[in-house]
## 1
Amino acid sequence: MTKPSSNRKKATSAVSNNLQATASSAEDTFDPENPASATITVTAAEVEELSETEQRDRLHLERRVERAFFEAGKALAELRDRRLYRSTHKTFEEYCRSRFAYTHRHVNYLIAASNVVDNIIMGTNGSQNEIPDEMGTNGSQILPTTERQVRPLTKLEPSQQQEVWRQAVEQAGGKVPPARIVKDVVQRIMERTKVPNTYQIGEVCQILVKDNPELRGKGGCWGIVNHVGEFSCTVKTWDGEYTVGLQHLKSFSYLPAECEQMRVICDRINRVYSSGLEESVQKFLESLGKLNRGYLTGIEEKLLTVLEFEYVKK
């Protein structure tokens, strides 16, 4: 028999050592001249089980991760409502951007989501003061674990939020449903109760001029819906009220908190604009009337405050 070359000996030796290391008993056979003929019984890698303490700690930490959005929303709401940012920042929006790198919209999403969770818990005779320590379950109740799961629910009434969530959990087989399932259930309910005009009082919309000469000069302006007709809405803008056909409106899809904030801004601009104005002041207010965001920047807030002081009669 021809002896293997030096390189072949090294390769064969390595294969032999590797196979022997994974063999389960000494009865395994291996022929260095014919590695393919080896009979190997491989032992499965041993998985180290967690102790009871480790298992408990893991569950606790996982639940903390899952309820992070809920805790963040509740904390942000309290920071906003108590104005605990006032010693370092002029506005809540500036504080959130500086302290947490959160956009204005993300903050509103978190706050709105925490309110939805409260409503879901209340739907099973819970109490807002009895929030479960572990998100994901409240007794036999399945609760949301991410903000995106409840985002489609924010525009619904509390009773509708509870019903949609119940149906979504059922469709997910009794588990926490993904955002896709929640959104599908919301869409079906909206289609079932759909009316010709779906706008709501307080909603923020943008005016689209298109081919309507009566709206000339209002293109891009935002307004607050204060009357809903069959095929039109009356919207309040920075300089008055206008009845606009549905084809000339586009919703900004703001959250309820953003809509309320824009209503306040609209009232403030309207009070100043109705006074006698210099041209530069008028142009500034008109620019605020065409914002595509639901808040004022720090400098815009300061300028509007100055104008209110100068032009609004006490």
Note: Strands lie at 29-31, 34-39, 137-138, 141-142, 204-207, 222-228, 232-237, 240-245, 249-251.
## 2
Amino acid sequence: MVKATPLFIVAVIAFFTLCVYAKENRPFASHTDYNRSIKVSKYSQKELDDHVREYYKIWKKDFLVKEKEFYRIATDKKDHSKTFSEAQGYGMMITAYLAGEEKEAKKIFDALFRYAKAHPSMIKKEFMTWKVPEKKGESDSAFDGDADIAFALLLAHKQWGSGGEINYKKEALLIIDSLLKYTIGEKSSLPLLGDWVDQNAKVYNQYTTRSSDFMPDHFLAFYNYTKNDRWLDAVKASLNALKEIQNLPINKTSLVSDFIRYDKSKKKYLPTSRRFLETEDNSYYYNACRVPLRIGAYALLNNDQESKEILKKMISWIKKSSKNSAENIKSGYRLDGSVIGDYFSIAFVAPFGVGAKAILDQAFLDSIYETIKDRHENYYEDSITLLSLLLITNNYWLP
């Protein structure tokens, strides 16, 4: 038996210490210089970063749940019994972006991902089931949750490298390849609602889609890692579908509907029926409210003019409707301009802040930021707002 030297033992300890306590390559407050954008005018960069730090602390306290060796994101402030794949995706992204500020970010991130892996879809095991606890026969996937999880894994790869216990890049590519194979339309190039959808079925198919699943910044990141042009096709198809909905004669708002379908006879995309899958599906409601966040991220990160034009139309109408005041933005609109929810919710306000930043609307950005920076509601609203704050404060980046 060869006796180990003290130097060898020190080297082994150092190696494992490095794996466990890996340093961040992009710690929080490194900042991204978005080309041709603006910042909130009233606060310094340090103050903006501090606002995000405080918002994160409350979000973490309210929604991050430790469960045995896992972490998960609860979908209600008071009732911690449920978790969605969407929630895990948000949680993993937020944790990766807050690394450095959050001292246990890697530990939390890994445990969030392990929870997702421990609850696979019954259809495609590469995906997470959309809801936990699972109901018998309903354990299938939702596109947005898996896309966010894959994107977050790429963030983790950039943040900590993939040489540790979890190979983030490998795990991301497994999901990305499966997303492309099973949940991107073969002809439409648009996201399917989940792995339960048959590409060519009569009701739910590759031409019936959720507007908030259009994530061009994610698709660009997936292309950068795979060099598969179908992800660029998904970017193009997503922006084209949004523009078609905006330009419909019946659309008096330039907003977009929660769900979209392709009408073969008219050869254009239209809103679905009102109760196509959920509730106000033909209106700008609790799904589509995320569109300015998703499209705004791409506009900022890629300096994309096409997405900025989409945002300009949306913001032009919402400014007129709200009389230039973020406090007057309502919670949902039909495409004829009538109000659905006559109350205030940050879920409908914060994403417009990302859009205002992208199109250089200083006054509206300032109004929105002042309204949302320390306002809290519940899981969905606060998660959307925290992601919006990361973009508004230049703390969101492309892996």
Note: Residues 201-399 form a domain with the Glycosyltransferase fold (CATH 1.50.10.10).
## 3
Amino acid sequence: MSDQNSAKVLQAEAKDRSSSPLARIFSGSVGRNLGLVIALLLLCIVGAVTAGDRFTDVNNLLTIVRQASIVGVISIGLTFVIIGGGIDLSVGSVMGLASVAASFAVVQDLADQSNYIVMVLIALGVGIAAGFVNGIVIAYGNVVAFMATLAMLVGARGLAELVSNRRTFVVDQDGFRAFFRGAFLGIDALIWLFLIVAVLGWIVLNRTTFGRRTVAIGGNREAARLAGIDVKRHTTYLYALSGLTAGIAAVMILARTTSGTSTHGVLLELDAIAAVVVGGTLLIGGRGTITGTVLGVLIFNTLTNVFTQNNLNSSVQNVTKGVIIVVAVLLQQRFARGPSR
């Protein structure tokens, strides 16, 4: 009898602890994002101590964000897909295909005759089209997302190589280069574009019906269907959104490198998925934040910069990234199970 009473007391104390305001804060998205901020600050401190002024220089800090911008935009689209219970392995290849399509000589000539926005629309159109194909095959063809997007990864890369004949197309459209390689208030246009996409992604996920439906589908697909959500159509939209962000990233890589090639985006999907996972988005779906994804991208790019500034072996850098990913997944599993009883 005393054992039962002791057990009840322990359960009551555990419940009180888990229901305290502080516990709720740290177990929620705010607490997880705070942990990411602390990790980012620690990396910055390490960089400042080991590399000194080379790391803390404003130009170097802007370089970190600039390098994070492309994978960051792709990661935001992937965040929606993963929260919705899916996965998209094709974003890197789709970005490469879109960059090739937008840099064709005929497209650039058309842009010269009208406006550089033509190149942007072509890149976005290719990305959205590839995303729609992924979504239709997955939602209506009942193909596992992993296999469907793996097929698109291979197919889009192959198509990019075919249509470009494995050549690199130089972007010499003056309006395009002037706008996307320019700066506003001393900050690169690519960084502004990353910021705009991140803000829009946060608004869509947290303040719209689309975002709430995405979380509901990822949390319990069948319950979402019974609640009246058209799960198949919404899933198609999620992959189209991922394709859209891949198209935006294609525009950004064209601006950064002034060239379109089928090799753009090779293995970029792995970096994006890693950033999303480290940012706190559950691989099983149903939970995630845009803020966490942005912090995850910045953490990985800051880590890369710290290693580069200190001339450290890239292999050690890859091992460190692998350890970070494994730790993030283990923590995800812990939080997904909830407090043990």
Note: The first strand starts at residue 169 and ends at 170.
## 4
Amino acid sequence: MQSQAIFLFDIDGVLVEPRGYRAAVQAALQYFTRGMGLQPVHLPGEEDLALFEASRITSEWDMVPLALAALLDELIKANLGARLPPFLWGLNGWKPFRLPARVVYRPAIKAMAGVLQPGVYPAESVLAAARAGHAGLLPYLSKYALLIDLLSDTRDVMGSLTTRIFQHYSLGSQVFQRVYDLPAFVNSPSLLSTLDRPQLEAGLRQRLLELRAAGSLHLAAYTMRPSLPPRRAQVNLRGHAPEAELALEIAGLQELPLIGYGRVSWLAAQHKASPEAYLKPSPVQALAATLAAVHGDEIQALQDGLELYSSGKASPQAQAALGGKQTHLHVFEDTAGGVEAVLRAAQTLRQAGFEVHTHAWGVARQEDKIRALQALGARVLETTEEAVTAALAH
């Protein structure tokens, strides 16, 4: 039987070192703490953000409001009886008179991870659980209407102030205005463009591209990053930030098929569904990335991935891509959710009659991430270079 290999690459932490997103998280949080006169104040560090990711809270659109919620909960605890405004913009005039000695984020993050619901954005899962009085979850902030404004509509730049501020810093003011057709009220360069760094050295990257050109290796990028809709889709691009495309350019892999947030959002809109229902750890995004890696048609891959997941039926294009072949599906991830999605996608494909073998490669150095990846059977290495070299020798 003919054999083929497919490599699916996450972007942040795998193809690029996401320094820009990390800096944008800190800048967005500082925007709010400065408005409250809190300088300095203890903001979440790298270990806290890694714990978010290890806990399957991987989007900064959730991390920023959830970290701010944990901070506000501690501030209210230190200022019992304080009156808070019902909306985030009102925090500009709220100045707590007493600060906690230190804000410890890990207990709050672990409590948030415990209430996540499949197919629901993390911020909305936490909002619903906190309002229902879930024990130990934002016990002080949950009594204030501000919580609703903070954790609602985090995928809507108009509806969420934290997302709007974060996008100013990640995209830069000029790109923000162009993408969203909104005036910029924060002046910032693009932290993604200035700070992100490629994770593959040029020689190994070139080897991957040569193997792809020869037809002996199929490649695709597979990410939660905001992106444009699928190539060839006839849609209005307003509101679609090309963050995944920018990362692939930085990595030198812009020719790869890409299944990012914008592609999945396009698919969800066709079926009047929430994008979260199709994103990692759902197998739909992984199925689409697998098929796109082989034939390159992103629209067809998205549609076929959903059909496989929904009905178990494979289209003629999916049959041509995977049928009659022994497929070795390799995933390179720094978080557990992406690995889980590929494992579930492979199971779906096996149930549809395809022969698929999975190989999970973790790229991580933080203990929380390593443990989460190893729990799913991933072999964890410190760098993408090491993981790709090991996979090529597999």
Note: The two ends are 18 Å apart (CA to CA).
